[in-house]
């Protein structure tokens, strides 16, 4: 409306290249905001909600385009979101240290489909592994010796698998129900199971009903120092048929050699309270499984 004069209650905005207008949030997203940085979405700039407005003197001083979205924070300190480090995960899905991804070097990222599915801060730093092997947090310093403590109780049955004339992949040691079991070697608990009852053992048949095979309570530990016979390999130690776990034991918990981990039990296919100790050396970063010819005689790793 040429010639009309409209009083502006909040002042008039001189808009470069556009018709000047009365100041309001609608034409100037910074109008109501103290000096600072704001995501467009937080100050009503709906068309550029994921970009960053730098507001000075209630005017837009600059707009930064945010490639990975805008992080809405308090008090005019919004910022462009950092790119997801997993976008640079070149070996596909899995665990990657931040250092190789341009992310936080002390963080282990779980990358799935080029995005961070979860992440964990490594107290002692992150250890990159060779291509194809999952990176991991550095283990706590080992306080024990790099060898395996003998299980409690008395020897019942030895290792006889894989060319040794039998099919027993560990060592059985009989001990009273509830006898404390300690970590035979320092490491991280990487597997547990609880809640399995005893599965009646048929002495004449020498076995249990198939429905309860492998249904035992257990604790699985990954050794800090690797395999005592070859520190370049990982070693997994299994304690099977336990009654219950010691206080505080669960996945991810670090235990030192000699720390309580569980109590001797009779869970699963078992003819009496005992612990089945099984150890599995594998290539670094590889998975371990029970009852395969990867298992070796635990006695070969005993501390003297
Ligand atoms: Zn056994």
Q: What does it look like?
A:
The chain is mainly β and 304 residues long. The chain has three domains: 12-80, no CATH class; 85-137, no CATH class; 154-301, Distorted Sandwich (Glucose Permease (Domain IIA)). 0% of the residues lie in helices and 32% in strands. The N and C termini lie far apart (99 Å). Zinc ion binds at residues 157, 168, 170, 172, 276.
Briefly note the CATH topology name of the largest domain: Glucose Permease (Domain IIA)
**N-to-C terminal Cα separation, in Å?**
99 Å
Please give the CATH class of the largest domain: Mainly Beta
Determine the strand fraction and express it as a percent band: 25-35%
Task: Please describe the topology of this protein.
Elements: E1 12-13, E2 21-22, E3 36-39, E4 52-56, E5 59-64, E6 70-71, E7 79-80, E8 94-97, E9 107-112, E10 115-121, E11 126-127, E12 136-137, E13 154-157, E14 171-174, E15 180-182, E16 187-193, E17 198-199, E18 218-223, E19 233-240, E20 244-245, E21 254-255, E22 260-263, E23 268-269, E24 274-283
Parallel strand pairs: 17-23
Antiparallel strand pairs: 1-2, 3-4, 4-5, 6-7, 8-9, 9-10, 11-12, 13-14, 14-24, 15-22, 16-18, 16-21, 18-19, 19-24, 20-22
The structure holds zinc ion.
The site of zinc ion (ZN) has 5 residues, from loops.
């Amino acid at each position: 409306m040429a010639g009309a004069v409209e009083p502006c209650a909040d002042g008039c905005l001189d808009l470069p290249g556009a018709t000047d207008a009365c100041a309001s949030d609608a034409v100037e997203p910074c109008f109501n905001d103290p000096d600072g940085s704001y995501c467009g979405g937080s100050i009503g700039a709906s068309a550029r909600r994921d970009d960053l407005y730098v507001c000075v003197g209630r005017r837009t001083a600059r707009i930064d385009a945010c490639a990975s979205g805008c992080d809405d924070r308090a008090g005019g300190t919004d910022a462009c979101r950092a790119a997801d480090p997993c976008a640079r995960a070149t070996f596909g899905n899995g665990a990657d240290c931040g250092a190789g991804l341009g992310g936080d070097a002390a963080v282990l990222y779980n990358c799935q489909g080029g995005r961070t599915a979860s992440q964990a801060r490594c107290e002692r730093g992150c250890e990159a592994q060779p291509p194809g092997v999952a990176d991991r947090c550095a283990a706590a310093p080992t306080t024990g010796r790099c060898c395996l403590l003998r299980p409690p109780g008395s020897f019942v049955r030895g290792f006889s698998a894989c060319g040794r004339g039998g099919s027993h992949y560990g060592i059985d040691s009989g001990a009273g129900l509830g006898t404390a079991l300690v970590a035979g070697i320092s490491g991280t608990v990487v597997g547990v199971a609880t809640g399995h009852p005893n599965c009646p053992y048929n002495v004449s048949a020498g076995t249990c009903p198939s429905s309860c095979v492998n249904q035992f309570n257990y604790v699985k530990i990954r050794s800090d120092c690797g395999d005592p016979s070859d520190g370049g390999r990982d070693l997994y130690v299994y304690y099977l048929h336990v009654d219950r776990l010691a206080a505080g034991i669960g996945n991810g918990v670090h235990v030192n050699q000699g720390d309580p981990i569980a109590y001797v039990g009779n869970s699963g296919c078992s003819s009496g309270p005992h612990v089945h100790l099984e150890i599995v050396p594998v290539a670094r970063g590889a998975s371990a499984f029970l009852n395969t010819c990867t298992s070796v005689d635990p006695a070969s790793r005993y501390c003297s």
